[in-house]
UniProtKB/TrEMBL annotation:
Lineage: Eukaryota, Metazoa, Ecdysozoa, Arthropoda, Hexapoda
Protein name: CUB domain-containing protein
Keywords, in A-Z order: Signal
Keyword Transport: no
Keyword set includes Signal: yes
Residues in the signal sequence: 1-21
Span of domain CUB: 261-396
One Pfam family linked to the record: CUB_animal
InterPro entries given in the database record: CUB_metazoa, Sperma_CUB_dom_sf
Species this protein is from: Bactrocera dorsalis
Length: 401
């Protein structure tokens, strides 16, 4: 009995030593606490696994599925689907069921991926509260699969545009048609953020109001760190919340492919796409947000093709730079503009404006720019009938032919 016991103890010590050495070596070679997740292409495998028990990885993107009825769902175990009040509608690989959920008005959710659809009967106010999925959550991605509210009320005499029925989140107030749009919000749980509220308000209760939003809690990767024996073998020590324990032993999410650079309210991750202003007939007033586009690895350039462009302007014959964005602001002066970093006209490289307003761009015109691929849109609180917005297609391509 005794020799056998000693053999078991020796085997345990050898295994523990081997695992610890492997983890230490892994962290020595790959630790890089200064790496930025925003523009780095460092593999996600180089980031912290938090514990040896969390080996499997899946991304928030892979949680998405299509139900057997063609609607958007989330891959969950059958138990978790039922626990969240969802309905299993088909299967997704070997992971579980494609769960159709719908957060109701007034409800609170801490799920990783949340689907929000309009109720049959519109209330005066409908609020949804998002609480943290984990302490690593740093952003919220809100995707507007469908979004249609009443159009804003425009007053040409007063020069105002007001959303009656409206959607409020962060610094955004939206109405009208915005299907296909998306918004990123900062949600730094580690810094103390506790919740985000999405609110629909319906003073007019327009009967055709409808929405289908997908809200994803995105987790920032954590830099690797050296583990002591205690938190290598017992990662759950010090945890007091049952939900925390469940998350420790569950598959860890890696949201690398979805995270936006800090400060970006919109982030286009594909090498081609179309960027549009919010609102289908007229763009929204009092918006101030940054639009970012993911670069390709290595040297690259971006080409913009204008589909539509019409903003207000103070001048009637000059629509660039200081005529759009005056250095000295005065009350009542038009201050709507689209800023495009490092842009130049493709057919005239001597034309390199940064700020565009009025009728600065016409359909079919092309611009080229170098990284960073960013835009900034600003709209004031004044309205005129020319404020129909912009639609610009882009293509990122390698600079090495």
């Amino acid at each position: 009995m005794v020799p056998s016991l000693w053999k078991i103890i020796a085997l345990v010590l050898i295994c523990a030593h081997t695992i610890r050495c492997a983890l230490w070596k892994d962290n020595v070679f790959y630790n890089n606490v200064n790496a930025s997740y925003a523009y780095s292409y460092k593999p996600t495998q180089d980031m912290d696994d938090s514990s040896m028990f969390r080996q499997a990885r899946r991304s928030a993107a892979s949680d998405a599925c299509t139900t057997n009825e063609g609607t958007s769902g989330t891959c969950l175990s059958r138990f978790n689907c039922m626990r969240q009040g969802g309905i299993p509608k088909g299967y997704c690989s070997t992971y579980g069921v494609c769960c159709e959920t719908n957060l109701q008005c007034g409800q609170v959710s801490s799920s990783k991926r949340i689907i929000i659809k309009n109720p049959v009967q519109l209330p005066t106010v409908c609020q949804y509260v998002i609480t943290p999925y984990s302490s690593n959550v740093c952003q919220l991605l809100i995707e507007f699969e469908q979004f249609e509210l009443n159009q804003p009320t425009n007053d040409a005499t007063l020069g105002t545009s007001t959303c009656g029925d409206r959607f409020l989140v962060g610094d955004f107030t939206l109405c009208g048609e915005n299907s296909g749009q998306h918004i990123y919000l900062p949600y730094d749980v580690a810094a103390g953020a506790t919740q985000v509220t999405l609110e629909f308000s319906f003073p007019t209760k327009w009967a055709q109001s409808s929405w289908n939003l997908i809200v994803t809690q995105l987790e920032c990767p954590q830099p690797k760190k050296r583990f002591g024996a205690s938190n290598m073998v017992m990662p759950f020590m010090g945890q007091t919340n049952l939900q925390d324990l469940r998350k420790i032993f569950s598959a860890k999410h890696s949201d690398w492919e979805l995270l936006a650079p800090p400060g970006c309210s919109q982030y286009f991750r594909q090498p081609t796409g179309t960027i549009k202003s919010f609102g289908d007939i007229y763009y929204m007033e009092n918006l101030h947000y940054t639009i970012c586009i993911r670069p390709l690895p290595g040297p690259s350039v971006i080409e913009y093709t204008v589909n539509k462009f019409s903003l207000s302007s103070e001048q009637t014959d000059s629509f660039y730079d200081e005529n759009c964005h005056p250095l000295i602001l005065t009350d009542g002066r038009q201050n709507d503009y689209l800023m495009i970093w490092n842009a130049m006209f493709k057919d005239d490289a001597t034309m390199q404006p940064t700020y565009f307003c009025g009728q600065a761009l016409s359909a079919g015109q092309e611009l080229v720019a170098t990284a960073p691929y960013q835009m900034y849109f600003n709209s004031d609180d004044q309205w005129s009938s020319v404020e129909t917005g912009f639609s610009i297609s882009y293509r990122v391509k390698s600079a090495i032919s």
